[in-house]
Design a protein that fits this description.
This protein is α+β, with helices and mostly antiparallel strands. The chain contains 1 helix and 11 strands.
Length: about 140
């Protein structure tokens, strides 16, 4: 009897530990995309993001249209192991977004993460990130 109770206690504490760890994982936009800045300073990097429903849009300065942003849009395409959405680049995103992704960020830092894996929802409707090389050209 004591052995069974101990086993149940260990299993419950393991499940609680797992669920608390999962809730601390967030998903984030790629820091930069493969759009080379004209000033030779590197690639265009994340300025801000928006999140609504199961759609995350990441905004980077546009080199093709100076003074505007390139929007890379991702939509949730199902759940990974019942914990979180798997986000894929939408077909109407510009070709310069190819290779960018929504990826894990275990820190869940303020402003950097549009999606919380634990709650499986947007962390906010939008946030300014302001990576280096993220200002309008």
């Amino acid at each position: 009897m004591f052995g069974t109770a101990l086993l149940v206690a260990v299993l419950l504490s393991s499940l609680l530990g797992l669920s608390s760890r999962v809730s601390a994982i967030c998903l984030a936009c790629s820091n930069c995309i493969y759009d080379q800045l004209p000033n030779g300073q590197g690639n265009a990097c994340l300025n801000y993001w928006t999140c609504s429903g199961d759609t995350i849009t990441c905004y980077y300065p546009s080199t093709e249209y100076p003074g505007t942003f390139t929007a890379c849009e991702f939509t949730g395409s199902g759940y990974i192991l019942m914990f979180s959405q798997d986000f894929t680049l939408t077909s109407d995103s510009p070709a310069v977004c190819d290779g960018s992704s929504i990826g894990d960020n275990s820190n869940c830092e303020p402003n950097n993460d549009p999606w919380n894996v634990g709650t499986n929802t947007c962390t906010s409707s939008e946030a300014y990130v302001g990576e280096p090389n993220s200002g309008l050209l």
